[in-house]
Amino acid sequence: MMKPDPIQGDPSIEFKPSHGDRVLEQRTRRIGEDLLKQSRQAGKTFFGATSWSDRLSDWATRDEHFKVQLFRFVDVFPMLKTSRQVYEHLMEYLAQPGVRAPRGMGFALAAGGLLKGITADIISRQVRTMARRFIAGEDAASALPTLKKLWINGAAFSVDLLGEACISAIEAQAYAQRYLDLITTLPGHVASFQADPRLETDHLGPIPRTNVSIKITSLDAHPQPIDFERTLDRLAAALTPILQTAGKLGVFVNFDMEQFRYKDLTLALFERCCEEIDFHAGLAMQAYLKTGDADAARIIDWTRRTGRQVTVRLVKGAYWDYETIHAEQQGWPVPVWPTKEETDACFERMTGAIVAAIPMKKDQGGVKLALGSHNVRSIAHALALLESRGLPPSALELQMLHGMAGQLKDAAIRRGLRLREYLPVGQTIPGMAYLVRRLLENTSNNSWLKSSFFDNASPDLLLAPPQGEPTTWAYAPTPARLHELAHHEELSPAISGVGDGRPFITEPPRDFSDADQRARFAAAIAKAKVPTVANDSTVAQASAALASAHKAFDSWRDVDPHKRAAVLTRTAALMRQRRDELCGIIIRESGKPWREADGDVCEAIDFCEYYARMAIELFEPRRLGRYIGELNETWHQPRGVAVIISPWNFPLAICCGMT
What we know:
The structure is a single chain. With 659 residues, this protein is an alpha/beta fold. It has 26 helices and twelve strands. It has helices at 22-40, 52-62, 64-76, 83-94, 103-111, 115-134, 140-152, 169-190, 197-200, 228-249, 263-276, 292-306, 320-330, 340-356, 376-388, 406-414, 428-443, 448-454, 459-462, 479-489, 515-527, 539-557, 561-577, 579-590, 594-618, 653-658, and strands at 156-161, 201-202, 205-206, 211-214, 252-255, 280-286, 309-315, 366-372, 396-401, 418-425, 622-623, 633-634. The strands form three sheets. It has an eight-stranded parallel sheet with strand order 1-10-9-8-7-6-5-4. It has a two-stranded antiparallel sheet with strand order 2-3. A two-stranded antiparallel sheet has the order 11-12.
């Protein structure tokens, strides 16, 4: 084990380095250079041609078109039942113009004939082999050989179940039983593994050998942040027997972090379970979220307040594309950092905050750090921070994905660091989604592994400090954001003098995963009152109303279309201003749930904004042909008075839209 070169520091003082702290940066650079050198000397790289899957990853890295088609094939592979189906899908995806398959695969596909079945069978076996590279087995029993091999080679483990977001109560119960299977089956077998103090102790003493990761969306068919307290109650009830069993058997349970909308629910559930049940507890936290700094501060404050010791698995995040696309679709601010460098900077800030909160005594509340990263810079920075507090390397745990970063793992083990591999167990179909995610990470142009081992980038580039500053997260859609989306989507013409002069953009719905928005909405609903409208009109009164409308029609028809459109945009503005009040009336009068009531009002606003823009061109004369001596034009005009009988199920949107 390499003897550390510590930076002197008082461990009783919180370490808060500035971004440009020279001594810390020098130490980070020295550790990083050493780790990078050892990693590159550890043998063939992850992308080297040592297996079929390695060669495929190598080729996918070189050819973006091939990568896209390969991942499409892998995604559908579990549903292909015959060799003919496999071959036909391979040809469908890989015979596209501009797609070049690797030499051997390309030859086999082009040969056809008798080689069709042989080619399909070979590739089917190779895809399954590639999946097994990242997946330990189908259940606890079948995963044991892989877990034992890891332990012998110097790495601990955290086992997860493939799949998430179950859709029925029966499926949720099945997941709960599978978690219990992991928790009850693994400890007895793992206890027979050879002793390894590096893997089963930290700076404060023994830690569990068996480590299981759970996803809360697998334990409830309808986890709804909008129904926060009742969802929290259901999840706590589902988790209680699992965590009580884990506590009795000495199993560490880590709460995985999933999509952003479940983040606050996961934090609240974790805190509640830790306060009510005695078990070895861990929690994943995501640095790609703009709330990362605040999330870390929340958990640190909670541990100090409660005296609880927990471990944080600090990761960068696995749903960046989804979070970005989903937020843009909804018209919400994007919750993740837009660049990898900003994510890396947040990761280092969160690392610093957590290292400063690592407990120095067994009975002291605080947060232990499990660093989930394949980035040497991130690891080196954490080790330098440890030294700054006078903490030994055993106070840090490194966590890496099974089947990836082999050379970096070897270097970490040789350095005497505690390494834990995160590996899933489960069936083939959910396994393919996991496989595609791993392949995407391996071949991404932003991948640190690709840059360091495939592109052989320089240490100056790989170990440079990331640039990025904390930001204040705001959930509410901003006008600037909506204007950007309007020009990006161009759902309508931009009409000068109509509304804001920009194209139409759909009204963003409320994000009910945000506690502030839920509270404001609930307060508005509580104050809403359904107006009392007398229903005693007579036929004569109806006839008089129609007569009045007919009388006004001619003058209204001839009003400038821009002025008529302005009535619609002013109506939209008033509805937007009183949006939650209108929702409250709809909820009380029609019995709509929150989300559907909000959607009804949003749609009514959309009708006004959209029709205001689309109407203008209808009323502008358009010339037909250019014949000598003729002027032929076509245009539209209002037809007259209309009576609208709207259905009950959209009391505002359909009535408003038709009007």
